[in-house]
Amino acid sequence: MSNRFHFSTGARHNRYLLMRHGHSEANERHLIISTPARGLSAYGLSHRGEAQLQALLADWRWPTPTRILHSDFLRTTETATRVATHFGLALQPEPRLRERAFGDFEGGPDSRYPEVWALDGHDPEHREHGVESVASVASRMQGVIASLEQSLRQETVLLVSHGDPLQILLTALSGRPLGEHRDQDALLPASITLLDRG
Description:
It holds the Pfam family His_Phos_1. This is Histidine phosphatase family protein. The protein is 38% helix and 15% strand. By secondary structure, it is α/β, with parallel strands linked by helices. Strands 1-6-2-5-3-4 form a 6-stranded mixed sheet, with helices on both faces. Strand 3, helix 4 (74-87) and strand 4 form a beta-alpha-beta unit. Helix 3 runs parallel beside helix 4 (74-87) and helix 6 (134-151) packs across helix 7. The longest helix has 18 residues, at 134-151.
């Protein structure tokens, strides 16, 4: 799946590919896995996720990445590793690309996500149930791009992260209210969104 996205505020020095990890064991088991305690060493790619990445790399339709940064969760690390191996690139773990922390819902069923998203729509600063606020996620995700803009020029950077953080980032970059991050189509596992330089 391919998406194209235009920055709302000015040109950038680099091109960015935002990639959601492939289908994972957490997806397969319908679990919320959002903390390093669970996510760093377990709940990697499912067989379906492995197949998604094999198909994606066999028919790559995007600019070739020159650099890969990834969330250090197992599912994102495994995803980034497959791409890095294919293109002969090194990996750079980036904790700011981690999954959004879902607080009290950690380890529970993913059917609880809509409760958090409903609260997000009313207040992107909320931390109900111990969840990480949308504003906090937006800040750290935008910080990754800001850092890269300061240090790199004319590169194509693949950022491998998670569904909620990537949708929040796209909402922030579009200049829309952060509470609207679920109003756009959900990013599917192993999907890539191209951010044009402008």
